[in-house]
Amino acid sequence: MSLDHIRISQQARDQLVALKRKTGIKNWNVLCRWAFCTSMVEASEPPNADLPSDSSVEMSWKVFGGEYRDVYLALLRERCRRAGLELDEESLSRQFRLHLHRGIGYLFGDRSVQSIDALVARALR
Prior knowledge:
Elements: E1 5-7, H1 10-23, H2 28-40, E2 58-60, H3 61-65, H4 69-82, H5 89-109, H6 116-124
Antiparallel strand pairs: 1-2
């Protein structure tokens, strides 16, 4: 596993498709940023799960994070450090995928998320 190449599960892809339709956000990476941040604000750690990489949705870390990719990486590293996890590439990649998938599930499961405005309102809660 590597942070350089991000691929999500088919279930997460299907959830992102629904979120794209509801919110009007066209790009996977933008929705994935929302999802990652949604998970990161949770105090609990995401459950340890084997997540398949069985969808056609993939992106590089550069595409995921855009101009703020170093900020997202710093947030991930700090979260892992606080959780007492290793800061090696494999651990960071695994934790990123766990947070990403948990965040996608949270956004998909939140019935109030029907627009970009609703995403912003959710973030401000």
